[in-house]
Amino acid sequence: MTDSAAAAPTPSEPPLVATLLHEGVFRIVMQRPKQMNALSSKMMAALSAELTRAADDPEIRVILLGAEGNVFCAGHDLKELTAARAESDRGRATYERIMRQCSDLMQQIVRHPKPVIAVVTGVATAAGCQLVASCDLALATDTATFCTPGVNIGLFCSTPMVALSRNVAPKQAMEMLLTGESIDASTAKEFGLINRIVPRDYLDQVVQKYAEVIASKSSHTLKVGKEAFYRQLEMPLSDAYNHAANVMVENMLARDAEEGISAFLQKRSPEWSDS
């Protein structure tokens, strides 16, 4: 096991995020519950740093993204955004930097070579909902709620909309964006925003088992499949099939495909080389 933090803490300030690696499953936990785990510039930098480190670590096969407290993530740090209004350009440069940083973080998750699973134990709102939608999979407690409430404060959730609209049907996405109202975990699952709902008392056990099943697969195969999945989504049908066929050919030539097929035919467990 390893325990680390992405951001250097001050003597009186705990790390922005905590991490734990166990049997290929890498947990990243946001730990600013008093600030509702808001995506301040520093929090986004801390998350990005851990994701970068995880991409290069062969010991890490699956990533779990969670948070301390009753709020998974309240979105952007509105105090940070408001303070920028005092700047000579009324905050334009700061807003451009923060929105670009957030967009880069979400795309980093989508393009990450390892599966990223959101573990939602509370409220996920605005860019926090975007964070959930950007992950490959999402597990939530039965008390978790989700919303994109920017419209309530005169700030339409335009960037959360990008991730949201790639997870749920257009009318359901627009319902969340136009009303700004919260949906419960059951509705979020119905919409397609999350995969499973787990009682809080069993969450850690279920999440760990869920992640271990994925971690047992060939990391090379997971990387190939995840990249192909997101690329084909952006293509017309014919182009998507052409791309997927090319990926299948290259995948068939990989050592792990050869080993996996042989192991299946020989009725034994495969021994992955991750290549």
From TrEMBL:
<dbReference type="InterPro" id="IPR014748">
    <property type="entry name" value="Enoyl-CoA_hydra_C"/>
</dbReference>
<keyword id="KW-0276">Fatty acid metabolism</keyword>
<dbReference type="Pfam" id="PF00378">
    <property type="entry name" value="ECH_1"/>
</dbReference>
<dbReference type="InterPro" id="IPR001753">
    <property type="entry name" value="Enoyl-CoA_hydra/iso"/>
</dbReference>
<comment type="similarity">
    <text>Belongs to the enoyl-CoA hydratase/isomerase family.</text>
</comment>
<comment type="function">
    <text>May play a role in fatty acid biosynthesis and insulin sensitivity.</text>
</comment>
<protein>
    <recommendedName>
        <fullName>Enoyl-CoA hydratase domain-containing protein 3, mitochondrial</fullName>
    </recommendedName>
</protein>
<dbReference type="GO" id="GO:0016836">
    <property type="term" value="F:hydro-lyase activity"/>
</dbReference>
<keyword id="KW-0809">Transit peptide</keyword>
<dbReference type="InterPro" id="IPR029045">
    <property type="entry name" value="ClpP/crotonase-like_dom_sf"/>
</dbReference>
<keyword id="KW-0443">Lipid metabolism</keyword>
<dbReference type="GO" id="GO:0006631">
    <property type="term" value="P:fatty acid metabolic process"/>
</dbReference>
<dbReference type="InterPro" id="IPR052377">
    <property type="entry name" value="Mitochondrial_ECH-domain"/>
</dbReference>
